[in-house]
Design a protein that fits this description.
elongated; single chain; alpha+beta; 5-stranded antiparallel β-sheet; 125 residues; binds zinc ion
């Protein structure tokens, strides 16, 4: 029983056995591996946010500029040319199984793709 427990004490970074001299709750074989493991994880998280946030804010600005000009419909091609990324949204408002459309939420705006057209509007939160 004790032997099994000891064998389970392996470093989360290098998978080596954690020396008996380490604290009872130690997750790493040495401090260096603890720091490296945690830094790698943080870097991954930061990279994920960096990848998604600029796209969301860029999309939001595109919708805002159009709506401020009184535009509520543009072609998909025009949206793409403006740099709109259809994969960047903050949620799904509703899907219409009959029309096969989905209304996507993008902060306080929404957009729905109808074939070659996208309809955009400001939503009340
Ligand atoms: Zn290690």
């Amino acid at each position: 029983m004790m032997e099994t427990h000891k064998e389970n004490r392996r470093c989360r970074y290098c998978d080596d056995r954690i020396p008996e001299t380490r604290n009872k709750g130690a997750l790493y074989c040495c401090d260096q591996h603890g720091w490296t493991f945690r830094n790698n994880n943080n870097a991954e998280e930061r990279a994920k946010i960096r990848a998604s946030e600029p796209g969301l804010y860029k999309n939001r600005k595109i919708l805002k500029d159009l709506i401020d000009k009184g535009i509520s419909e543009i072609s998909k091609k025009t949206a793409s040319c403006l740099g709109f990324d259809f994969n960047c949204f903050t949620g799904i408002i509703k899907t219409d199984p009959l029309l096969k459309t989905t209304e996507y939420k993008l902060f306080e705006y929404s957009f729905t793709v109808f074939g070659d057209l996208i309809k955009i509007k400001k939503i009340v939160i």
